[in-house]
Amino acid sequence: MMRRFSFAVVVATALWLQQTVETGGKTSVVPSFWSNVTAEFPFLVGLTTGEKDDETNRQTLICSGTLISSTFVLSSAYCTSSLMTTVKSNLDGSSLIAYWKTPRNSVKYHRTISVHPHPLYNKVTRISDLSLVKLKKPFKHVEHFVGLSPRTLKSDVELNCVIVGIGAPHERGYKVPVRVKYGRTACRIPKSNPSLEFVIGYTWADFLCAETIGPGVTRLPCDRSDPLLCSSGRHQYGIFSYGYDGTDASLATIECGDSAVQGRLLFVNRHAGWISDTMTKEGDDDGSWQFGKNGRTTTRHRHTTQPRSTTNSTQAAVPHVTSTARPVRPEIDYPYLVYLEGRFDEPVCGGTLITPWHVLTTAYCTTRMTEIVVTVTAHHRQHANARLVYIHPDFDSYTLTADISIVVLREPLNVIRYAQLPDIISDPINDNSTTKALNCVVVARRWMTPYYITVNVMYGLKACRESFDSEIQTTVNKTWREFICGMPNQELRNDTGDPLICNGFQYGIISHAYRTKMQASETGSIDHQVRFLIVDYHREWIYGVIAADNQIDTNDGSPYAFPRLLISLVLPLLTIVLQLLSQLR
C-alpha cells in the first residue's frame, strides 16, 4: 500500500519511436516499435522545462496536455506546478516549453507565456486539479482540437474509454484502454487506509475512477496529467490526477498501468465554466474554443453552454433531505457518535468520528476543556484519551466563526462506519435568498441518555430569526454564509458539538444559540435560534489536518510513535554512558 497522500510520479518504460526531432533546424532519428498515437489524436501536446537528467540526458519531468484551441492547452495543476518548481525563475509559466508531434513524426516546440491553475486547486486532495496553459503562438497544421463533453453523469455509471499520452519528445505515445466509473462507490478503497476512504468519500463528485482492462496492459505513468478520452476519442472527460493501490497488496505495486492500481481522474465536464471564463479573460485569439463537439480549426464560434450540476456541490442551496423515521439505534444508525468530557467543572460536548483517530467537534468546546476523554455512545462504551487538539486558525470566540476543531486520539476507536461529510454549498447565493425549511435530525447520546430530535433547517441571509440584541443581529448578518439555521428549539440550545444529520450525512455541527425577538404567545417562554456550523464550508482545513497528521504513519494506520520509542531507548543508553564516564574518573 502506498503511503497515505503520497502520490509518486512513476515514469513509463521508454520504448523508442522512429521519429524526426527538429531542434534549431537540426534533425535526429530514433528507432520505432509502435504506431504513432499522436497521428490518431493530433491535439496531444507535451509540456516540459527543457531540463534534462544528467545520466540519461532526457527530460526529468513532462506533462501531457490537450489543445482545446490554437493557443490554450488543458493540463493538471499538480503536474504544471511541479514543472514550474523545477525552474528557478519565471514562476509565471513563461519558462515552460510545449511540444507537438506532426503527422510526419517531427517535433515542434513553442514557448508558453502563462499558466493558470484552477483557483480552488488543493494539492493534498487534488480537488480542481486543473490548469490552462497559454502558448506564445499556435502550432501550425493541427487538424482539430479536443472537444469537451457537456454530458453529466449519474452515480454508478460505467464507460469504456482510453487514456492517452504524448510521451517525451524522443519516446512513443501510448494509449491504454480503461473502464471508467462515476459515483460515491466508484473507487476501490483499501480497508487498511481509513483516511484515504475519508478523502475519496468527500471528493468523489470531482473525480472519475479508472482501471485498466485487457491483457498485457501497458504501464501507465502516474501524475502526467494524461487525458481521458471517451465517445470513441471525440471528447475529453477527464485528466489523470493520481493513482494508488486499490488492494492491500505489495508496496511495490504502484505503476498506474497495473490492474491493481486505482486511477482518479479529474472530471473535466464539471469545470467547463471556469475553462470558458479563463480563456475569455486571457484572450483566445482565434475563438476556436469548442464545448460539446470536436472543433475544427476553421470554426470561429464559441459555445458557452454550462453543464448541468451532477451533485449538490454546485448548487446554491442546501439540497432537499428527509429525516429518518425509525427509532434511533446508535450502534447501527450512528455508530460514529461520541461525546467529549474534560474535568468535572468543564463542559461535555458532542462529536463524530470521521476516522478511527479523528473526532470532529466545535472549537468552542475544545478551547474550554483539558484532559479530554472521548467516549463512543454505542452500548460497548469504548473510550480513548486525546493526544492532540487542532483548533481552526480563524476561530473567533466572539462571533463563533470557524467554530470547528479536530481531536486526535491516542488509540483508535474502531466502529462499523464513520461520519460522512457531503458537499453542500460551494458557490455564493444571493444575499436576499433563503431556502425552504428542510427536515433533518440532531442526534447524540450522553451518559446513556439518547437524543433524537427532528429539526427543520434553513439557509440564507434571512434564514435565522432576528435577535433581540442589535449587536448579535449584526454578527448574524455578517456570518450567515457559515451557518445553517435550525428552527427555534429549546431542546437543542445546550447541545454544542452534536451533529446535524440529513439522509445519513453530517451537514453541520451545533455551534450556538441566541435569544430571538419571538416569544410564545401562550406560554411566554423565551425563544432561541440554533445555528449549525456548515461542515462543508471548512472542508479544505479538515483535509489538511488529517493529511498532516497522517503524513508519517505506521503500517496499522496509527500516528507515528517514533519519538516515544526513541526516548525509551536513548534514556537507558545515556544512563550506561554516564556510569562508564564516572568509572573512568
Shape: elongated
Kindly identify the CATH topology of the largest domain: Thrombin, subunit H
CA radius of gyration is 28 Å
**CATH level-1 class of the largest domain:** Mainly Beta
Quickly give the structural class: alpha+beta
| Name given to the CATH homologous superfamily of the largest domain | Trypsin-like serine proteases
| Main beta sheet strand tally, sense and closure | 6 strands, antiparallel, barrel
Count of all domains: 2
Low-confidence stretches: 1-34, 53-59, 249-254, 285-327, 426-430, 552-571
Secondary structure tally, helices: 8
Tell me the fraction of residues in β-strands, as a range.
Answer: 25-35%
CATH-scheme architecture of the largest domain: Beta Barrel
Major sheet: arrangement of strands = 3-4-5-8-7-6
How many strands in all?
27
Q: End-to-end span in angstroms?
A: 53 Å
User: What's the average pLDDT?
Assistant: 72
Q: Give helix % range.
A: 10-25%
Structure in a nutshell:
The protein is of the alpha+beta class and 585 residues long. The chain has helices at 37-40, 77-85, 194-203, 272-282, 363-366, 470-479, 539-549, 562-584, and strands spanning 18-23, 26-31, 44-48, 63-67, 72-75, 97-101, 106-117, 131-135, 147-148, 157-165, 174-182, 207-212, 227-230, 235-245, 261-267, 337-341, 349-355, 358-361, 373-376, 383-391, 405-409, 438-446, 449-458, 483-486, 499-502, 505-519, 526-534. Residues 22-280, 333-547 form the Peptidase S1 domain.
